[in-house]
Amino acid sequence: MAPRWIIPTYWRGRSGCCSSPASVLISPPYAARPRRRGAGDVVRFRKAAPERVVRSRKPAHPAIVTVEEFVEAQLLRRSRAAGGFAAGRKLERGPKNTKRVYPLRGRVRCGYCERRMEGTPRNMRTYYRCAVRTMVPGAPALNGHPTNVYLPEEAATKALNTWLNDLFARENVDRTVSALVASQEGRKNSTPDAKDAAKKRLQEAEGKLRRFQDAIAAGVDPTAMVEAINEAQAQRAAAQAKLENAATLRTTCRTQSDRTLHHRPT
């Protein structure tokens, strides 16, 4: 089979590719020494190891993100990648921005895989759906999971309205008030000492993460610290949730609950 440069049709539309004398001199076809297809040098750019990366001490432009945010994002990506499918199965389906309003958004879970179901309109009706195609391959919940699981929103809201009407009916108000007051007994244990303990745990977790970031910046392999980083992030998230819950904590006494429920507008 003749090389492509010998075929006359090869040069159609390529009249300008070798217009200058220099291009003629360096072109293999003009020297009767064609370069075989597939032969020649191949340049591949490989990502350098973290310890071989050279960083400038003087910023070239204003920073978009801080160094701490960048390192934390890299650690989060590496921790998820190191876990493989096992880590992917634990990820919670996040909310999506939609134009429609779903009253039960983020509150309906699939009975097969325990994931949040997403709202979807079909034939002028609203459903909450769990599609098996969105699951991680190899997940144990795939066994016996239907292709699509649908829950009509009308059926769920109708049952909820019936339950709420029964719960706050005139003859059941006293029982409901007693249940509300009893549910707040555990919240009263939130004292300044508990807040101080949560702040201390938060500071310790943030200190650990800073030390891990410094170690990675010094050249330590991040994959060797995945478990410790994940544990520190979980401790920080738990401490932050404890502080936020303590800051917004409000309890109501039985008198306030009675007044609110007995004198509600009809």
TrEMBL record:
Record keywords, A-Z: DNA recombination, DNA-binding
Keyword Cytoplasm: no
Gene Ontology molecular-function annotations: DNA binding; DNA strand exchange activity
Domain (Recombinase zinc beta ribbon) ranges: 103-134
Location of region: Disordered: 183-202
Biased composition (Basic and acidic residues): 185-202
Superkingdom classification of source: Bacteria
Signal peptide: none
Keyword DNA-binding assigned: yes
Name the UniProt record assigns to this protein: Recombinase zinc beta ribbon domain-containing protein
Species, as recorded: Lentzea tibetensis
